[in-house]
Amino acid sequence: MKKAAGEGMIDFDRRPRTGAIVLGALCLCVAQAPARAAAPAIEVFHYLDTRADAQRVAVLRDAVKSTGYAWRDFTVAEGFTGRSESLLRFRVESRNAPSAAMMKTPIMRYWAGSGKLLPLDDIAAAQRWDALLPKAIADTVKVDGRYVAVPLTVHRVNWLWINEEILRKSGAAAPTDWTDFFVTAEAMKRAGYAAVAYYGRPTQNLLLFEMIALGIGGPDFHRKALVEYDAALLRGPVMEQVLRTYRRVKGYTEPSSHARISIDRGSSKFQTGKVGMHLMGDWANPAFYWPEQGAPFRYQCVAAPGTGASFLFTSDSIAMFRRPGASDAKGQRAFAGALMSALVQHGYSLRKGSIPARQGVALDGFESCAVKTAAAFRTAVQASALLPAISMTASREVEDGMQEVVTEFWNDDRMPVREAMERLVGVTRRR
What we know:
Layout lengths: L19 H13 L8 E6 L7 H12 L4 E6 L6 H12 L6 E4 L1 H9 L7 H7 L1 H4 L2 H4 L3 E2 L2 E2 L1 E3 L1 E4 L2 E5 H7 L7 H13 L3 E3 L5 H25 L4 H4 L2 H13 L25 E5 L5 H4 L10 E5 L7 E4 L2 E4 L5 H14 L2 H11 L2 E2 L11 H15 L3 E3 L1 H4 L2 H16 L5 H12 L3
Helix pairs in contact: 2-15, 5-14, 8-9, 10-12, 10-18, 12-19, 18-19
C-alpha cells in the first residue's frame, strides 16, 4: 500500500558536532526528560490489498485511532484464501494472534468454537446491536447467541451490470431470465462485442455458477443444494441444467478469457466499456464508478437473470481475538463499538460498493445502484428472504473444492456434466 507523504518516515536533523561538555549536557537532558509512552496498538488482519482498497483501509485505520489506540497493519494478498487462512492460523496457534481479523462466518465460527474470540455482548448490549441489525445479518456474527464479530457491510451478490451503449447498439433489452440473457448476449456478439466480462479466477467461476443455480433453481434449490448439500439435488436434472447454462456462458466471454485479469480500478474490458455485461456482486461497482469522477460510461444494474425476487448476500465482518491483557480487551471492545458507528459503517460501505450492515444509516453520497441494493435489501428483510452466499456458509475445504470443480468444468469442454455433478457431491461431503 502506498504511504501518504511523511507517513512512517523519520526526518533526521543533522547538526555539527559540538564539544564533549555540550554533548554530555544534551544526553543528561534527554535522560531526565519524561519518556512519552507510545499508544498501544490494535493489529488488524485484513485482505484489502489492492490500490482500490486504500480508502477502505483508511476508514478502518481512522476507527482504530478514534479509540486512542494506534493502528498496526496485517495485510494479506489476494483475498482470504487458504494461504492467508493458514497464516492467520499460524499466528493464533503461536499465541501471537492479531487484535482483530476480517473473516467470513465459517472461519469466525471455527475460532469461536475454539474459544479464541473475544465475546462482544457487552458492547453489543450498550449499542443495541439487536435493534440495529436485521436478524439474518446478526446471526452471521453470533455463535450460540453471543456476538463474536462486528458486521461491516452487506453485499448483494446477484447483480448484472450492463453497458447501456452496447445494449443500445445491439438492439437488445436487459434480460430478466437466462433465456433472455442468451438472446441479449447473441445480439451483442452479432454487433461485434464480447457479451460477458470474465477474469479467469476460480472465485468468479463459483460466483457465476451460484448465480445461475439461484436463477434457474430458485431460492429453495439454492438452499438445499448449495447450503445443505442435498446429494439428490446435486445429481439431479436442475443441476444438470445449471451446469449446461454455465458452460454456455463461456461462448460469450471476451477472447482473453483465460488470462487472469485484475479487477482493480479501470483494468478490465468491462470497466473500459468494451464488454456488454458483467455478472458480479456489487463490490465490483467501485472498480468502474468513483465518487470523485463518476463512471466512464452509462450502465445499468439489474438483478442477475431469474433472481429478481432474491437477495443473495455476503458480509464483511471483523472479529476480535482474545489477548492476554485487560487493556487489549478494552481497546478491542472500543474498536468494535467504533466499527458499528454510523460514521464508520457509512464511510466503509461508500468506498466498498456495499451498503451498511447497520440499519438506518443515511446513504448520502451513495450512487444509484447502491440505493437500489438498499431498497432490495429492505424488501428481502421484510419478507425474511435474505439468502447467504456459499462464501458465508461453506467451510474453506468445501468452498475451495467447489471452485476447483466448476473451474475445471469451465476450462475443459470434454468434462461430462455427470462427472462434474458427482465431484460436487464428493467435495460437499468434506464438511
